[in-house]
Amino acid sequence: MTRDVVQARRTTPFKDVVRLLDHHRISGMPVVDADDKVVGVLSGSDLVRYQAHPDGATAPPALTAGDVMSSPAITVHPEQTVPDAARLMERRGVERLPVVDEADRLIGIATRRDLLRVFLRADDDIRREVSEEIVLAALDLPSDAVRVCVRDGVVTLGGRVGARSQVPELVHAVWRLDGVVGVVNALDFRIDDRETPTPFRRTGRL
Questions:
Q1: Of 27, 56, 82, 203, whose CB is crowded by the most CB atoms within 10 A?
Q2: Are 138 and 169 in contact (CB under 8 A)?
Q3: Which distant-in-sequence residues (6+ apart) come within 8 Å of 12 by Cβ?
Q4: What is the reported pLDDT for 164?
């Protein structure tokens, strides 16, 4: 995300909003209240919609960011992953997501460009994180248990883990890493810990 955020207040005049967008060469910005809580998002399309009234007159000088913004704002928290943010952007059809803390105060903004930049992450960096931080550190598996191959952001997992339940756990953890665009699961396991035990049956006469 970008921490240096261009923002507007509810009371920021319409013309000042236009100047901010033009000066910083951006297409939108969050709108915050006096406590820096995000109350809406303002985009170029919002401005165009209010530039003229049905009778052709220009927008009145008293028009403010609060009048123009889209509300409520679609926001994310810093602990959410890049794939989650990308899916939210696609689902809601937005170009930017204000990043807020637990009190909904603005701490940054994530744009489509920010998200795309993450997916340019080097394959070697992804492979190193999978091997060291997930396979070894998080799941405590032997270093030679899982073979990790990464090509163009697609992670292929091979080898054999101890229990069947570790397979989806590993795949899910890899999917959530920044820069991962796909996961190929070629893992095997030694013990099927998801089988339902056969009920004990008493045989013979008492």
A1: 82
A2: no
A3: 20, 31, 64, 65
A4: 93
Nearest-5° angle of CA 176, CA 181, CA 183? 75
Which tokens in the block code for residue 55? 């009778």
Q: Find how far residue 175's CA is from the centre of its chain.
A: 12
Q: Which helix (H) or strand (E) holds 9?
A: strand 8-9
116, 92 Cβ separation under 8 angstroms: no
Q: Pairing relation of β-strands 154-163 and 182-191?
A: parallel
Question: Which segments of the chain have a pLDDT < 70?
Answer: 51-62, 195-206
The pLDDT of residue 54:
47
Q: Which amino acid is at 93?
A: G
What kind and span of H or E run contains 139? none
**Cis preceding linkage at 72, omega within 30:** yes
Euclidean distance between CA atoms 74 and 98, whole angstroms: 7
CA 33, 35, 41, 43 torsion: positive or negative? positive
Structure-block tokens of residue 196? 């339902």
Q: Is 176 left (phi over 0), alpha (psi -120 to 50) or beta?
A: alpha
